[in-house]
Fold these 3 entries.
Entry 1:
Amino acid sequence: MHITVIGVGHVGLVSAAAFAKWGHQVVGYDDDASKIARMQAGEAWFYEPGLDELMAEGVEAARLSFTGDPDEALAEAEVVFVCVGTPPLPGGGPNLSYVEAVGRSVVEHARRDLLLVEKSTVPANTGKRLEQVIDREAERLGTAHRIEVASNPEFLKEGAAVQDTLHPDRVVYGTSSDWSRDLLRQVYAPLVAEDELPVVETDVPTAELIKHASNAFLATRISFINAVSQICDRVGADVRVVAEGMGHDVRIGHRFLQAGLGYGGSCFPKDVDAFAHLASQVGYDFGLLDEVREINVGQRRAVLDKLEGELWHLSGKTIAVLGAAFKPGTDDLRESPAVHLANDLADAGADVRVHDPVALGNLAEEQPHLGQAMTVEEALADAHAVVVATDWPEYVDITPEMYRDRLAYPIVIDARNIHDPEKMLAAGLHYYAMGRQSIIR
Ligand code: UGA
């Protein structure tokens, strides 16, 4: 099939490369000329394991190309995926103006009947608004091509985006006619045949809602276990064992029950806000989601409390922050709990030194006021305390001796629960974890 992907961010670029792998003829379009130039040179513009290889495979097979020219992008398109950003607005809802702009542009540049598929995360009923825009624009321009709207949410995680896209748990699409459903069946046929995947075929608003409900539910799980971690600290229990004990119940499961500094990234914070906003717009008070957000911010407050408990005033203290990315495996800093924490520390007057294995370039660009350390050793040198803020695997190997020998005061706040508390305590460190106070006592 001839597929065009509009917007080559995390979702768009990985999806485009996967469609090409499944045998489709794919064009990636973006209005950012610098991104297009990098991808035409065969290089992804962001870090994602396995993506360069997947892109190279598509380009070599002449099934994947990139352009910044909308006419060229849509010349042969039968199915167009909208993968542009839907960033948060101050009121909590997402900014859908980029999605709308794609709708208008597609009408202008379409050369045949086509299906416009929302892959960007959008609130329920965005499809209806998009259809309205398309119909108006088609009338204005006098175009006769059939353009329908469908929803096909994406569930990939950054850092595992290639794996998640090539081997998803499920495929979900919502359509409003047999024609559009059959087109999406054809798009996913190679994947479904190979993996015998569950496919949920539904209407457009239901598909849109599946995405928001999934992300809000996962964020709720994380906040739930973080709230439990607070209780653990107060009653002397170990949250990791609590989560393990809960997770053996197959109705609960083990994943996304890791207590720590809370969730971040470009999706959960924005999508929880957007879902709460949609709920209030349609007259339902989804107070649970307000709590999910509060608990998430509260985890950072808990780290500051532990630091203040040890250091009294943070002003004038040097604090090493290990990790800047919102999770391991990515250089993405959007809504990163580590970056929020570093800023909270700086606001409290601390001299902050941030280390990250891959995200320091982005940090210098986006948060130039924060101090940086090129190595873990440099970050720790004579710092008054250290906070492990992102659970990068390389930090697991830091020994208690490394902390003890380098820090000015032996204070370690393990905000991602990566270390063995007994070893840390045995080495004489003032070690704090999240919800593991029983061991520490
Ligand atoms: C998330 C979802 O997991 C994907 O299914 C979805 O497609 C994506 O959003 C999206 O909407 O595009 P992502 O934001 O890449 O993916 O990252 P996650 O792996 O879900 O992690 C999100 C945050 O939660 C990270 O800050 C991570 O550290 C935190 N987290 C995750 C925890 O604090 N505890 C956990 O147990 C799991």
Entry 2:
Amino acid sequence: MAQDSLWETPAAKTLRAEPGFELDQLDRNSTPGFTGNKADGERLLEERGAVLSDLQELLYANGRSGDSRSILLVLQGMDTAGKGGMVRHVIGHVDPLGVQHAAFGVPTEEEKQHHYLWRIKKALPRGGYLGVFDRSHYEDVLVVRVHDLVPEDVWSARYDEINQFEKELVDAGTTIVKVAMFVSLDEQKKRLEERLDRPDKYWKYNPGDVTERGLWPAYQQAYQAMLDKTSTEHAPWYVVPCDRKWYSRIAVTELLIDALEKLDLDWPPANFDIEAEKARLAQS
Ligand code: AMP
Ligand code: MG
């Protein structure tokens, strides 16, 4: 495996949420497993982005030949954690044709008529695709829990239900890469201030973000419960410190490369007679 030596331990090993993980101990400005600096990280993002791109093309090619396997990247994090930037700067390396991207906001009237997994199931990647969720079904045990949008007995049953749902997905050939992105309270303030200072960022600002910020401890508790209850063997969480964007981006690039390499893909064989086609082409 072509793991750059600047990683002293692979991202998939270092960042995996193991039982007993304590979120309040996480240094959100840290760069776990990585020994390089920002310049190293930025260079590496380009190098490894190219590797990711090649692997994604292999996945797509296999999908076109009937392989039903897929990858689903789940990005979950508070406002300003960098979910959108992750899509632009990491997923931006691969051919958009093979990407199925979905963002989940406040449920629409139509979505509210259905089970919370309804909109999720509609957005799942088909065979050969790299699915990307900007927020996900985990909102239904995060914002919903923090704001008591449904009674406790309803949201508390969802952890098991989500584990079961993901197990079925994995058994059907989807590798789920769940990334919990954590920014510090201070860094979030800086990023929100920037959104208020820059006309090109006003569109990202939502007055509600400051309300959610006021509920920080309740959110941290909800995130801790999510990690405790849904970091499973079949679909573990990876905890990524996000105060340094360059770090979070190389970390997620490595997680995706690792997931794709584990599929052990090869180029699909020709489904035509190569020699006959060469002869036909020569005569044409
Ligand atoms: P953004 O990602 O900035 O576009 O914001 C989307 C907003 O939708 C966030 O405040 C989420 O917490 C909220 N949201 C996403 N899913 C749900 C849900 N199932 N119930 C309530 N709010 C949600
Ligand atoms: Mg937002």
Entry 3:
Amino acid sequence: MNNRYVIANWKMNLSLNESVQLAKKINIRLMKEIWRRQVVICPDFLSLSSLSLAFSKSKLNLGAQNVFWQEQGSYTGEVSIKNLNQLNVNTIILGHSERRTILKESSEMINKKLKLVLKYNLNPIVCIGENKEIRDKGRERSFLKKQLKETLIDIRLKKNQEIIIAYEPIWAIGTGKNMPAKEVKNMLNYIKEEIANLYNKNIANEKFVFIYGGSVDTSNIKSLAKYSDIQGVLVGGASLKLNSFIKICKNILE
Ligand code: PGA
């Protein structure tokens, strides 16, 4: 089995000081755990350089919540992958639903970002997921199939590269309405089948990792951890609380 991952997405929730304090505490708590390399912390952009220093001696991974698809140039307000790379960021979240819906990011944009992330040999986490309306109509599978196809156009993976696909049903994000673990497993298996259709079974097994996000917390992590097909979790709200986050990591990575 591929490695499992726990990704903390702090979104825009913490002040600079709070980010550094939380990062330091996580660092101390995970210092001796061999699986700490499977934990990725994604703070807001302005906290990245402080966290880069805080993590310089530990094996915790630093991730970014977004990147622009051009390396540098006249792109007001955008974020350069070159600078993320210099800050020792090794993982980048792409196409989070909050960016797809609020900032109108399209799968075409995410596809361009994904190409750049792979060019720089960084680890991409590609988010996909349906909203409530689509789920109520029972169209989630065809929706995900389309999202995957558009996002992965012309994406080829080199040796040692992998893509993490984070399935995050929008109706489950930040709502406390998480999807039952068995249903998560079924959806991840469906996504894997679609990847196998786009590439082949071997590539789907070896080059892709399938994780879940959406109201993951200490009350549901145990049931999610039971299924080996659930290869990790993307955690928002619960990653802001030290004890909850450590408990989630332990439940799924130990
Ligand atoms: P949540 O957020 O855990 O607060 O639902 C998950 C996410 O948006 O990645």
